[in-house]
Every structure is written in C-alpha cells, then in structure tokens.
C-alpha cells in the first residue's frame, strides 16, 4: 500500500493512476495520523511553492511530514515534493520549507525558455533502487521554473543540463525525490515508479552515462473535441477552423481511443481542445471531464485541456471562477489548461489600464498551480497591409505576399474559435500573457489550419522573439519535412499536428524517425 499526500493542488490523479497501473493500491492521506502511519509515502507536488507551504501548514501536515522523513522511511517526492524538502525557495522567500535537507530552490536564470518544459535526460551520480531496468539514456518529463540547490553534495542523485547543470534528483537514505515526473514519463517513468513500489530492489547504476543531457523537441498530437449533431462527443478537424463538411461535423474518432493511440505511437504530449467550450459552461459539459479521467488512466504523458476556461455565472446567478473550472480539470487528470478567448479579453483590459488585477484567470490559475500549468492558445489570422506605416500593431515583412501583392502583414487575434477578429495582435497578446503569468504559448494559425501547407514560420518567429516562455508551433503540418523546417527555422520548443495524425497520413513514429538524426528527439 502506497500512501499519497494530496495537499489539494495539481494533478495527483495521474500519480494514483500510474501506481494502480503497476498493481499497487493507493491510499490518499486524509490526516496527519495517516502520514505517520504510511509504509511508503509519495508526495507529488505541482504548482507554486508558497501555495503548497500555506496548505501544508493549514492542514497541519508540516510536523508529521518532518517526523516521517526523520524516521527514514521510504519517501518519493515529485517536483514540488522535492522542493518541499529544502529550507526555502526563491519562489516564496518569506516561507520556510520542511528543511529536512539544507539548501534552497532557485529560479532558472539561463538563456533558454523558462519554464523548462519537456523531455530531458539524467546523469546519475549515485546508485539507487530507482534505476533498476533503466539504461541511462532515457528521457523524462520535466516542467518547472525552479530547481534545488543542495548544500550537501552527497544527496545529489541525478543532474540534468538546461543552460546550467542542475540537480534533478536527490537521495538520502530512503528519501528519494525527482524534479521530473515519473508518472508523466511513459513506460520509462513507470519502470522507475515500480522500483520504488517493489520491496526487493537493490541500488544500481545505469549502464549508460550521458556526458550532456539535451531537451528534446516535442511532437504533440492535438484533438479538437466537440459534440456532433447526434450529440456524440467526437474528435473533429477543421479546414481553417471550419469543421463541417457537407453540413455535418467531421468525425475523426473517439477522444479517449485516439489519445490512447497517440500515446502508443510515441506522442510527447496530448492536447484536448473543447472547441465549443466558449459557448457553454464547461463544468456542465461533463463528458470532457470523463474523457480526461479515462485518458489519464492509461496515458502517461502530459495532458493539456482547453476550451471555456473563464469566469462564469449560471442561470441561478451562481458565480464560478475560472480557477474553479481549471481545478475541476486538474483533478480529472489535466496537467495544464489552455486559455483562448479569455486571454484576449484579459490582455485587452490590461493594455487599457496598464494594471494587473490579480483577478484574471491567467493570474489566479498560475498563482495556485504555477506558470507552467497555464498555456495560452492563440488563434491568429494574417491581416495584409501595404506597409508598416499607420498600423498600430507589430508588422512583419512577409515572403508570402497578400492577395493584392501586399508585402507586409500583422497577426490578428480572434476569439470564439476564430469567429471574431479583435484589435489585438498575437505578438502583443503573447507578451502580455507572459507578464500576467502564463507559462507556454500554443500558437495556432487559422490561415494554415488543416491546409497541410506547413507551419507559418514568420508568425512563429515573430511570437517566439517576443517571449521567453516556450512556444508550441501549431497548424499546417502536412509532411515530416515541415517539422524539420519549423524546428530549424524557428526556436519553437515543440510542434503540434492534428489532421495528418488523425488520418494516419503521417504517423508520429515517422516524424520522429525522420527527425532523429537531425535534432534531439525522444524515441
Ligand atoms: O476560446 O478558451 O474557449 O478555447 C477554445 C479553444 O478551441 C482554442 O484553443 C481554439 O484554438 C480552439 N478552437 C476553437 N474553434 C476551433 C476550430 O477549429 N473551429 N480549434 C478550434 C483550433 C486548432 C489547432 C489544430 C491545429 C493543427 N484547433 O489546435 O489542432 O491547427 O491542425 P492541423 O495539423 O490539421 O493543421 P476558448
């Protein structure tokens, strides 16, 4: 029996699902006695250090946790569950951590995008039970802006390179903790978790020791989900956002089955977009929650969900915050949420007032769950102009002239699934959302969506140059060469496709096989 510490933020469902998949039972600790009585304790932390410590204090978990750790019983901390072991964190300097290990968590100050999101390797510094059946050259899923800096070098179990060499795992006696998420790291992560669960494991070192670890470019599958005219929830796909063919909504499969297929085929991440979420209140749209719950049972890579994440008042005047909507998604198995239309309204307001309100969905969700949990989905469309003069938006010189031979354009934001253009451009939106706390940009492109004509490199370059958070290039992938082009010509950390994967025109494995000698890829 594994006892799991759920302090109430983040996606613990995936950890429970992963442990159960390995045949072990999980009990979620409900009080301090259950922490003290644990045989093996797993502490998965996601989000913000300050918020975590507040809740641990409120629930009076600090003391029992310290006592459990001092008794050297088996413990596995994940992500923030690693940071919690230290004395403090730059993320919330006013609060003290458990202080079981000396040192602190520091923010990345590197010339790379922060958060560090994606699949990276480990360099093993000491044998551990966790490394049985691990070769040493595998990649694990990371998502964080802070890393731990222990004072005592003897606790370092693994390091990872990302601009600097940082500590990605610690071990002291039976206390183990990883910065990466084993529960999100596919079969490799499950193997590592199994080693913690099993009783008979001896400490070993993997046979391969990489000199340097590298972050892989991520290949992401995107599932646009909505109800069709018969009321069934289906994966659909638009051509420039028009999902109807001969009047009917295109049906390309069932969401849970398709997600499973993409996990099996090697997708590094899966995104669900509830594309009609802007119309209805998503918490009424329980099927999406069911899709997440079912998918997260067997799919052990990160899951993002978008559509309808905003504040809402129902017909009885009951108010729901965007945070409450997001919370429901996280508890159902989402690792990140994506905000589309609401981000545009928030940015417009911010540009008008020049002030952060602290009340917006972006600010609220990132404060509780961390920046890395908030993705901004942008749906831009090109607006061609004859020159940069008299245009209030950042204009780029384009190699793809407009219908009247225009050599310049800007990228207009839209809301409500591309139905309504706004007086705001994608570059400014991305910049403002980063300031407000977003951790990643999902950059779609209405002009390229479903066209198979390649990613809009000009758009991606313009947005990527404006932010320091990771960007997912989306829309237009038609062949393997398009992925090479977007990774070689832009600094996008990941590339997403939908149509070619759904229709089996280009499988994910083919994309990865093609890229593997050219770029860093997770195989
Ligand atoms: O505004 O917060 O409710 O979020 C709605 C979400 O639904 C947004 O993320 C928006 O992008 C998405 N959405 C709304 N309408 C559509 C539509 O297609 N009619 N889908 C839509 C957007 C775009 C991509 C697609 C790529 C790759 N989907 O994510 O998967 O373009 O496609 P391809 O490889 O086939 O070219 P809110």
Based on the model shown, name its key terms:
8-stranded parallel β-barrel; alpha/beta; 8-stranded mixed β-sheet; 523 residues; 16 helices; globular; binds ligand 1PR
Q: Enumerate how many helices there are, as a single number.
A: 16
Provide the gyration radius in Å.
23 Å
Distance between the termini: 33 Å
Mean pLDDT: 95
Describe the main β-sheet briefly.
8 strands, mixed
Main sheet strand line-up: 2-1-3-4-13-12-11-8
Number of strands: 30
The proportion of residues forming helix, as a percent range, comes to 25-40%
Name the overall outline.
globular
Classify the secondary structure makeup into a structural class. alpha/beta
Taking pLDDT < 50 over at least 5 consecutive residues as the criterion, the unreliable ranges are: none
Strand content: 25-35%
Are any ligands bound, and if so which?
ligand 1PR
Structure commentary:
There is one protein chain. The model has no long low-confidence stretch (mean pLDDT 95). The chain has 523 residues and is α/β, with parallel strands linked by helices. It has 16 helices and 30 strands. The strands form 7 sheets. Strands 2-1-3-4-13-12-11-8 form an 8-stranded mixed beta sheet. Bound molecules: ligand 1PR. The site of ligand 1PR has 33 residues, from strand 14, strand 22 and helix 10.
């Amino acid at each position: 029996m594994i006892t799991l510490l759920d302090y109430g933020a983040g996606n613990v469902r995936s950890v429970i699902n992963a442990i159960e998949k390995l045949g072990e039972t999980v009990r979620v600790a409900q009080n301090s006695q259950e922490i003290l009585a644990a045989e093996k304790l797993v502490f998965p932390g996601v989000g913000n250090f300050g918020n975590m410590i507040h809740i641990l204090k409120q629930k009076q978990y600090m003391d029992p946790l310290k006592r459990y750790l001092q008794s050297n019983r088996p413990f596995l901390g994940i992500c923030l569950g690693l940071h919690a072991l230290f004395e403090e964190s730059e993320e919330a300097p006013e609060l003290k951590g458990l202080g079981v290990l000396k040192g602190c968590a520091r923010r990345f100050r590197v010339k790379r995008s922060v958060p560090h999101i994606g699949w990276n390797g480990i360099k093993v510094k000491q044998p551990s039970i966790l490394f049985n059946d691990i070769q040493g050259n595998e990649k694990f899923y990371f998502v964080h802006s802070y890393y731990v800096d222990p004072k005592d070098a003897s606790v370092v179990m693994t390091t990872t390179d990302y601009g600097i060499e940082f500590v990605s795992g610690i071990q002291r006696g039976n206390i183990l903790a990883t910065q990466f998420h084993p529960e999100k790291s596919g079969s490799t992560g499950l193997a590592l978790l199994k080693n913690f669960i099993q009783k008979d494991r001896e400490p070993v070192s993997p046979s391969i020791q990489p000199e340097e670890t590298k972050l892989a470019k991520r290949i992401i599958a995107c599932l646009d989900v909505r109800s069709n005219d018969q009321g069934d929830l289906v994966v659909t796909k638009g051509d420039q956002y028009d999902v109807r063919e001969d009047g009917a909504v295109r049906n390309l499969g069932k969401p849970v089955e398709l997600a499973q297929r993409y996990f099996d085929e090697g997708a590094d991440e899966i995104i669900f977009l509830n594309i009609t979420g802007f119309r209805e209140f998503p918490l009424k749209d329980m099927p999406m929650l069911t899709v997440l719950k079912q998918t997260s049972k067997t799919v052990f890579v990160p899951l993002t969900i978008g559509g309808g994440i905003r504040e809402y008042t129902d017909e009885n005047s009951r108010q729901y915050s965007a945070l409450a909507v997001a919370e429901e998604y996280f508890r159902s198995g989402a690792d990140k949420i994506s905000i589309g239309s609401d981000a545009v309204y928030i940015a417009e307001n911010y540009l008008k007032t020049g002030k952060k309100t602290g009340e917006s969905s972006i600010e609220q969700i990132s404060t509780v769950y961390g920046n890395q949990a908030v993705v901004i989905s942008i749906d831009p469309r090109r607006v061609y102009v004859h020159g940069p003069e008299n245009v209030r938006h950042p204009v780029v010189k384009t190699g793809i002239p407009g219908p009247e031979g225009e050599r310049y354009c800007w990228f207009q934001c839209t809301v409500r699934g591309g139905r309504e253009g706004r007086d705001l451009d994608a570059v400014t939106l991305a910049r403002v959302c980063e300031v407000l706390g977003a951790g990643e940009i999902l950059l779609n492109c209405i002009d390229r969506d479903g066209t198979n004509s390649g990613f809009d490199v000009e758009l991606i370059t313009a947005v990527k140059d404006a932010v320091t958070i990771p960007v997912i290039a989306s829309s237009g992938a038609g062949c393997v060469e398009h992925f090479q082009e977007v990774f070689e010509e832009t600094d996008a950390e990941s590339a997403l496709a939908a149509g070619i994967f759904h229709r089996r025109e280009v499988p994910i494995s083919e994309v990865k096989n093609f890229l593997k000698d050219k770029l860093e890829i997770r195989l």
